[in-house]
Amino acid sequence: MAEAPSPSDSWTSVGRTSNTQYHRAEPDVLIVLPDANLKDDGPSAMMNADFQLAFARAAGRPVAVVVQMTSLLSQDGAARRVYAERMEPKLFFAAALVATNPMSRAIASFFLGLTKPKIPTRVFDSFDAALAWVAEARPREGA
Could you tell me how far CA 129 lies from the centroid of its own chain? Predict the structure, then answer.
């Protein structure tokens, strides 16, 4: 299984939970790097959703999350529901899921297929593609 990428030199560390590192790529873009071989369940998802919600509230405007799915070993239904239900459009404008191997693509596909995220959510095979889409999805000032 591929390891999560090292944080980019342009990203700023903004904290971590017991199983996930967080970095800011831009003032309104949160990079989510779960620890290797994470088995994401309801309590894990609640803890990480709380971190993401706090980041979004502190930003004072809607933010995007870019999630490295490659390091996940599994994600159960409770975890999928937490993320789908708690990502409020008033706080988040997009979620990009980076899946670079068959396992992570399957987990991302299950998330999209079995839940109905409240915000635009797409799967990408690279951080570059995910960040480009987030830039396009960003709400325009005054719009």
Answer: 14
Assign residue 129 the CATH number of its domain.
3.30.750.24
Give domain status of residue 7, yes or no. no
List the structure tokens of 121: 């959510």
Question: How many distinct structural domains can be found in the chain?
Answer: 1
Angle, CA of 30, 90 and 129, to the nearest 5°: 40
Can you give the pTM of this predicted structure?
0.90
pLDDT tens-digit map of 59-101: 999 999 999 999 999 999 999 999 999 999 999 999 999 999 9
Which 8-state DSSP code applies to residue 142?
A: T
Q: How many helices (H) and strands (E) does the chain have?
A: 4, 8
